Amino acid sequence: MGPDPLTPAVQNVTDRTSNPFGMRPPFDRSPPGDRPAVFGYGDANADFHLIGDHPGVHGGADDGVPFSAPEVEPLRAVLREVGFEDGTRDEPVFEDLFASYVHMCTLPPGETPSEESYADLERYFDAELRAINAHILMPVGEQATDRVLEGYTTQRGRLDLEMASLHATEIRGRGFLIVPIREPAEWEDTEQEALRARLEAILGRDYRQTKGVATTVG
Fold this sequence. Notes:
- The longest helix is centred in the last third of the chain and has 13 residues, at 191-203.
- This protein has a 6-stranded mixed beta sheet with strand order 1-5-2-6-8-7.
- It is globular, with a radius of gyration of 16 Å.
- The chain has a single domain, classed as Uracil-DNA Glycosylase, subunit E (3-Layer(aba) Sandwich), CATH 3.40.470.
- Strand 7 (171-172) and strand 8 (177-178) form a beta hairpin.
- By secondary structure, the chain is of the alpha/beta class.
- Helix 2 (73-81) packs parallel to helix 7.
- The protein contains 8 helices and 8 strands, in the order E-E-H-H-E-E-E-H-H-E-H-H-E-E-H-H.
């Protein structure tokens, strides 16, 4: 029996940008020669964790960088504006930001994850999220927002999963502050500015105290 693929996740000192904790996907359903998974990418000691659904929605199967689909460009523009992203489009440098997916494994074109495959990847996502230990979780889209609200807050039952209403709001969680983000491809004219303003407001205050506050409120 091989080593537990979750073991490296306990190590939070690394300068690796892609897959900093050495995660290995538990299954490979990608076409031959394709990338089996899009691993977490960015600053492993970040305070902000951007969370997407899967590579078929938000991209990365070609370059290994989460959120590289063309439809996500409005979001990437906000990240650059507030200082989270620098470098080139294909090889971005994320500062104080880590990006990953609820479902990191790639699938053949046109296929979507099953409930079983989401469940298979649950512990991998949770292990990486806790290893990063960010203060602010930013789920993008309905699937990721549902997963984050269910797993890391006590408020999922009190909230309608209406992304237009939840977009760029602040929700206290169990040790985290959650800022849901609507799918960038669906943004109205004001939603890019709303997210930029929200992130700048958080960055402008002592957000590092969020974890202590959220633990008692969430």
